Amino acid sequence: MNFIARWFPYILSGVSVGGQYALIAIGYTMVYGILRLINFAHGDIFMAAGIMMIYLSAVMPLGGAVLLVLLLTMFLGFSVDRIAYKPLRSAPRMSVMISAIGVSYLIQNTVAYLTGGLTKQFVEIPWISDTVTILGASTKRVTLITPALTIVLVVALVFLINRTKVGMGMRAVSRDFETSLLMGIRINSVISITFIIGSFLAAVGSILYFTNYTGVTYTSGAMPGLKAFVAAVFGGIGSIPGAVVGAFVIGICETLLKGMGLTAFSDAFTFALLVVILVLKPTGLFGENIKEKV
Amino acid sequence: MAFFRKHIKTIVPILVLYALVVVLDLIPGVPMMLLTVLKKGAIYSLVAVSMNLLNGFTGLFSLGQAGFMLLGAYTYASLNISSGLKPIVYQYYTPLFRFSITEVLSGVAGSAGAVLGIVLSLVIAGLVAAFFAYLIALPVLKLRGDYLAIATLGFAEIIRALIQLEALAPVTNGSQLLRGFPYFRGLFAPFLISGVCIFLIVLIINSTYGRAFIAIRDDEIAAEAMGINLAYHKRLSFVISSFFAGISGAMLAMYQTSVQANTFKSAMTYEILLIVVIGGIGSVSGSCIGSFLFIAMSEWWLRFLDNSAYNIPGIPLLRPGFRMVVFSVLIMIMVLFFRRGIMGDREFSLSFFSKKTRGEGGRSDSRRETDE
Amino acid sequence: MSENMLHDTSILRLENITMQFGGVVAVDNLSMEVRPGEIVALIGPNGAGKTTAFNMITGVYEPTNGQISFEGSPVVRNHPRGKISKMYAGQNADLYKNKETLSPSVDRLTALGMARTFQNIRLFKSRTVFENVLIAKHLRRTRGFFSAVFRLNRDEEASWREESLSLLETTGLSAVKDENAVSLPYGLQRRLEIARALATRPRLLLLDEPAAGMNPQETDSLTAFIARIRREFGVSILLIEHHMNLVMDISDRIYVLDFGRMIATGEPREIQNNRRVIDAYLGVEEN
Predict the structure, then answer these.
(1) Residue A294 contacts C where some CB pair is shorter than 8 Å
(2) C63 and C142: one domain?
(3) Residue A289 — very low, low, confident or very high, per pLDDT cuts 50/70/90?
(4) The domain containing residue C237 runs over which residues?
């Protein structure tokens, strides 16, 4: 019992952090699945959603702000693809990756300009910011909501991918880009929808994530972004269940390490895990094997 | 010598550049900003060229540069903090190194000793970075393309997290900064060190090993079939690149006069990568031109954009931070529309201007070499 | 097969080579040899296992079972291990069980003296014709890294350049030596690939469908070229090929594969009249 009392709060918050990472990781993994691109700007889109939430909730009711944040983030994701990635569809993959790094740089600098480089206080969202007590551990309600919401969204997403026409397009494009083009699938709309979904989930993740933190600044997206990416790689990039499992594993391990007083190690651990998985099984837990032909 | 006659059109502009640097050092009243840009540009040139060796010439997309710079910076700093300042710098810890290499050597041999001390520490800084690169090369370099990029980025982050550990604090001072070590006073030293290092990299690129690196970049499978040991050569390139990244990290420490882990974030690697891309992937002179332009733009030429005094009345667009927004837009334009960068994969020389119209500036060199 | 390796005079010898991918046996107990100075062709209909066999010889794949020797000494050796050992469907699994497994990397094999070309030409695309050949000299270096960087290996460099130029001369490429390699016409690119392989100073040349994508004239000229290469460089040649004219014109001996098994071997004339070979190529009614 003592053991549970000691570790339960950490596991609880680990599950919550894991859920937030999962929501970001899906965006990485879907884009990678379709474009074979590590969207370095994804973490910054996530951060931008947090900043928009702060500014919008200052001028309108909370419900409206949340709705508008979701819409604007989706639009941001859509425009990033259209402006920075679409012109490079036939370019080498490295060029697109560099463009992604450029976009990340641009978003960060723009946010730094708007906020004056300061850390902005995140909004108190009533009800989900409230403190609740569960099994003797007190926590914010968001901790409980996150994993549940994550699961619901993932189930909805999997349904979308497996049961709808759009989803079929996505699966086709991720299997074979060229052939899908020949088969008359409108590649660009499929890609846009992918970015929109990814950004939507990142926005949801952002609102949940920053509720647990005091503030948002222009570099706030980098770390969670990188970790979510690690989660995606860990689970096997391109695989949605993989990204979710990976995110929960990383979230829980990280908070447990913090609980053991090894805070300094928790970041290093995530990346060590990345390197270990890449070396032992580069395709991740659920990834597919692709080998270059001679 | 045949070498000089052959490369006269490259050597002359470089000599002119160095003469200018000496002149700038001697005359008073040079704008502060120009000096900053030149100093920082020289340091970034080296790290950009070292990254280009790996990314541009060997085709290994690595994003670990900031991590190796950090190792170099900490090595240089911890070995050179003057013993008088140690108690102040290491407020909470007992420093492991009780000496300062530069002080010890200058005690023996005066100012020649001090110079020797700095050179020695720079080499050690490079070796420490190279040693870590050697350790991680084996697992990491098996990975391909973007997986390699992420793994090296991860390693850089691990290094940054671990260097701040309490256990290492007697060397690294934890998350406090390190200061009180010899730094650059003029322009000549950073230009000389960078110049020598870049010259060494050029020698490597033009050697048979450099040809092997390029072969690996062009076609890994064919290179291996031609008897080039992939693991060995990739590792070699990685270690060399990290060695020079370590030196440039130490130079950055000298430039900044202090060292802290948080300066060496992945954002720094991204900046270096953008410099390489803007200069031209696979062009040494491109990386150098790219760094000076990059630094001059971001620190100097666009500076007016941060000043609200220049605002058009009624449009309060200009204020601190706007410079970087414009700058990143310019970068995006470059990345999207001028994908080959300023130099492509050609090298700068005076013959470049005459050959450029024919669209094959770089070919002329190889043609002459074959006639040897 | 032959255990008396002391008297083995062949350049290349495959013994009981089997390759199994999952449940599929792609090459089944293949034994063959190339003798000094010979041109040997490995042919067979699509999917017969030629490319798989070729990939094992060049070190790209590790065979599931069997042994490959080069100039009398074993260079590749394996027996069914790990996951595949339980589902192994080939023969002679016990033959190499107690012997050390050998699995050299591709570059090791090239260093030993076997060089290859590729079906889909793989040249160093940013380099000139001359540099493509020069790069192949790298593996014969005798000096270390620092001598190379500080140009203390001038003599070695000079002799490489000389050899490369004379190689381009012999192969009829010296007129285009400063052209970009991939700007050459297709036929010349093939030639350059062979020249580059020769620059590694091989005793055995492995050609992977050298005439792929060539018209009859180009094929004829390539046939003459390969014959001349053997004469002038004294190399043995193993090739896999679909163009029967080329194969029949220059091969000393032919091995025919079908469904992973060797179904015939002999001189071109014998193969042309072999019933099983004709059936394999034309297909026979199942009865």
Answers:
(1) yes
(2) no
(3) low
(4) 1-113+202-287
Going by pLDDT thresholds of 50, 70 and 90, the confidence category of residue C247 is very high
Q: Contact, A43 vs A11, CB < 8 A? A: no
Query: Are C188 and C263 within one domain?
Result: no
Question: How high is the ipTM of this complex?
Answer: 0.90
> Chain A partners of B164 at a C-beta cutoff of 8 Å?
264
Beta pairing partners, B259: B178
Q: Which of C169, C201, C233 is the last residue of a domain?
A: C201
The predicted structure's pLDDT at residue C284: 66
Same domain, C132 and C94: no
Dihedral sign for Cα C22, C25, C26, C29, please.
positive
> Do C166 and C210 lie in a common domain?
no
Query: Is B300 an interface residue toward A (CB < 8 Å)?
Result: no
Q: Residue B105: helix, strand or coil by DSSP?
A: helix
Residues B45, B66: Cα–Cα separation, whole Å? 14
Give the model's confidence band at B102: pLDDT under 50 very low, under 70 low, under 90 confident, else very high.
confident
C6 has a pLDDT exceeding 70: no
Q: Are residues C99 and C227 in the same domain?
A: yes
- Helices C186-199, C154-170: axis angle to 10 degrees equals 140
Confirm or reject contact between A102 and chain B (CB < 8 A): yes
Cα separation, C124 vs C181, in Å, equals 7
Q: Is residue A204 scored above 90 in pLDDT?
A: yes
For residues B230 and C107, the answer to whether their CB atoms sit within 8 Å is yes
Tally Cβ neighbours within 10 Å of residue C232.
Answer: 11
Distance spanning both ends of chain A, measured CA to CA = 59
For A174, A227, A278, the CA distances from A153, given in Å and listed in that order, are 21, 20, 28
Q: What is the 3-state secondary structure of chain A?
A: CHHHHHHHHHHHHHHHHHHHHHHHHHHHHHHHHHHCCCCCCHHHHHHHHHHHHHHHHHHCCHHHHHHHHHHHHHHHHHHHHHHHHHHHCCCCHHHHHHHHHHHHHHHHHHHHHHHCCCCEECCCCCCCCCEEEECCEEEEHHHHHHHHHHHHHHHHHHHHHHHCHHHHHHHHHHHCHHHHHHCCCCHHHHHHHHHHHHHHHHHHHHHHHHHCCCEECCCCCHHHHHHHHHHHHHHCCCCHHHHHHHHHHHHHHHHHHHHCCCHHHHHHHHHHHHHHHHHHCCCCCCCCCCCCCC
Q: Is A289 on the interface with C (CB under 8 A)?
A: no
Per-residue exposure over B337-371, b if at least 16 CB sit within 10 Å of its own CB, e if not = eebebbbbbbbbbeebeebeeeeebbbbbeeebbe
Chain C residues with beta carbon closer than 8 angstroms to that of B370? 128, 130, 161, 165, 177-178
What total number of domains does chain C contain? Answer: 2
Beta-strand pair C204-208/C236-240:
parallel
End-to-end alpha-carbon separation of chain B, Å?
14
Please list the residues that pair with A119 across neighbouring strands: none
Q: Domain residues of chain A, as ranges? A: 11-223
Single-letter code of the amino acid located at B297: M
Closest CA to A11 of A192, A154, A137, A177: A137
Mark whether C217 and C256 lie in a shared domain: yes
If we measure between CA atoms, which residue out of A58, A100, A131 comes closest to residue A225? A100
Q: Give the C-alpha separation, C89 to A13, whole Å.
A: 52
d(CA B17, CA B5): 19
- Three-state DSSP at B226 gives coil
Tell me the residue length of chain A.
294
C130 and C3 inside one domain: no
Contact B150 A229 (CB under 8 A): yes
Tokens of C4: 């008396």
CA distance C51 to chain A (A): 10
